[in-house]
Amino acid sequence: MDIKSDYYFLCIKNEKGEIYKKIISVIPFHVEKPLDFERSEVVASRFNYIFVMAQEYLNKGEFDTAIEYFNKLPENLWNSTTIPVIARAYYSNEDFEKVVELLEKENVIKIYSVLLLLANSCLELKRKQKAAEYFEMLRKYGDTVKINRVLGAIYHSLGEREKAKVYWDRAKKLEKSKKKNLNSTKEK
Prior knowledge:
By secondary structure, the protein is mainly alpha-helical. The protein has helices at residues 46-60, 63-70, 83-92, 96-103, 112-124, 128-139, 145-157, 161-187, and strands at residues 6-14, 17-26.
């Protein structure tokens, strides 16, 4: 406290000479350490963080919170990339009407996962004809036993028994083929 303001040298010496030297500045007032802010991304990227938080809540199973975060995004960010993820949150929250509303937009690319959400949502909403259309589109990704059975059940409930029979027969044929392939690989 008794040292006057000035520059001082702190020197450490031993028998071989000076081993350390530092300049020390003493000033007559207290200086707060300056705050150092780093901004590595632009301010607009805050919406990326909101989207990521929403996805984390979705993955955690907190669907209401996920939807709350998704709804904080501006409309221009509800695009062909984000809408399928947002729709998955609504599907998990059993808001099938919102899923269909979101995914039937023209800008949403109808890939497998989108078609599956649409098909199942339409089934939940008892829109069987629309569900059948989406399941037909899903068959293009893979003609499976399950999809054929579902299509058979849909057409049966719509009263189209002949069409239902075609799908059920296809499901049986695929199932037999699958069993045959399993048996032949076991024998080898």
